Amino acid sequence: MKASHRNLYERYEPIRRYVEAGFWIVLMTLQGVFSTMVAVVDARNRAVPRATWEIVTWEGSSHLVLLMLIPVFVAIERRLAPLMPRRWVLFLAGHVVASVAISLAHVAGMFAVRSLVYAMAGGRYDFGGWTGQWGYEYLKDVRVYVSIVFGIWAYRLFMLRLQGEARVLDAPEAGVSDPPEAAPPPSLPAPDDAPPEPEASPPPPPTPTRPERFLVRKLRREFLIAATDIDWLQAEGNYVGLHVNGHDYLLRATLTDFLTQLDPARFVRVHRSHAVNLARIKEIEPLDGGDAKLHMHDGTSVPCSRRYRDALRAGAVG
């Protein structure tokens, strides 16, 4: 039973992208077909009937554009998750802005597709008043936005549970393997004419100990990861993803807290949700607006926001 559970994620991972893409294609196709059938039946009861090809164009264009916007939905869900208790206003505001942008893109895409089909049929598509019509479309798009974003969030949460979260194992208790310290030699009394001893300066603050290796569990297996082998890190909700030699390990921790366990001279935060190993950066590609894209030695790319560019330069120079 354990072997089948362990291998389920491993068998699914190679075909994961194909299954995800196929799911959205099938879902949007079925919704488009059912919506078209309902619209055709409703059109028969109207005083001014519409041609079937027009109804197919209307419904088909809507679901086609939504299908093309699925990668945008995924990016929005990742960027705005999770809901923080102290940031719920920003969370809601972000989704409102995102829903407006999605709706505008949806309506503009529908208009372009319908205009093209009407032009090929020798006609002209009339969208009507943009202001009033878009308000009507936005009310429908909000429901679609919430359902799709929620579905993506639920699927991502399910995949985290299926994969199994990795955990840093507890360090051994102090004194278990360390030999006992030798007792200090007894001090001799000082003579009466001896000069007073200078006051001892306060001891320097202890240097924080950082583990060189992490022992993590994933899919009921244990892996020993060297801290220097971590290519980059990514905040994923209540987890932090460690990207190591093409493998991902999820730890239940925040990115900020986990960075305290790593060497700050080697690991630098480059984005609100990303940190990198400076030794694993292959190329820095500047972008417009002061942002940059970091190309890593493992073939992946990591975003670098303008806010963290100075820290990146200081770490690279140091």
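That was protein one. Protein two is written in the same sequence-then-structure order:
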Amino acid sequence: MKFPILLLTSALVFPTSANTVYTIPQGYTKVKISGAPSAGTTSLTAISVTLLNDTAFSGSVAIDSGSFNPDPDSNPATLNGTQKINVSGQTWTAGQWTTIPHVAYVADGNGGEQAFLITSHNTSGEITIVTTFSLTANVDHDKDPGTADQSRFPASTSIKIRPANTLGSIFSSQISDFVSDDRIFVWTGTEWTSFLKNGFGNWAPTTNSFGNANDAVIFPDEGMFILRSATSDINLTFFGEVPIVSQIANVKKQALLSNRVPIDTTLSGLGLNNSDWQSDDRVFVWDGSSWVGYLVNGFGNWAPVTNSFGNSNNLVISANSAVFVTRESEISDAADSAVITPLNYNPFAE
């Protein structure tokens, strides 16, 4: 996982136009799931998928501000709230975005994008997405009571719809390499959910080995923890679009967070040290055998929890890896808990 490969397409200029027209940057990355060091032991690897599936639809949308429906039971194990967005003049076919799970990448007011699962749609351009907050709710960006707040997402914006990553789509090409004692761990926000390869060649919850969880969605900001029992490595290759704008996640309390960019970044490049970050919040980086904790010290730098006077701003976070984020106090307003990961590369570099 230290040396992912990334290929970027170059900008194309059409001589008949005064404008530069860019192709969509495409690339691939290689991710290694390390084998157990010896028979009878296991290894753990934190991974994520940072390249994007191809765009199935792109267009302008209106967010229905009055349609936000919060989760009635506030149970993190169930779907959160929902909200409707509308593409004027568009016609969807039945099951177009739900027969296979799809996510809508919604552009915020600063040009970044956040992905939301599509749960339903009608045939006249309306889409219902899963969200923990109203997209048009006001956000206290600077914590200054003397300045006006504004929503993160404008009422009129744009979306890109892409197929969602699932356990099946991520691991299907290499599923024969997994053994029955291997496990995939996904953090739900409050606990780990684990999956195994069952006797039918499907991914199943460990609580129901006869089940089929191939369509379990892995969100773009979500990392995975892989426990490997066999001594051989598993090498995965991911293909897809290279992110061309900053990537947004929401972390109210705890998350196994993808590093969001398909090349190595740094601890300071994750976008975590923002106005919401508090002195008792922590980031834990998996070093191959244990979690190593980091905090923001009194100088505004990242430092190991064992040496708060240190400076770990330039600590390398490997591409397609994940870090565990935990806030000491939960952010009460989900709309105010954005983590914005900037790009550390020029996606249109020649």
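The first strand starts at residue 12 and ends at 13. Keep this in mind for the problem set.
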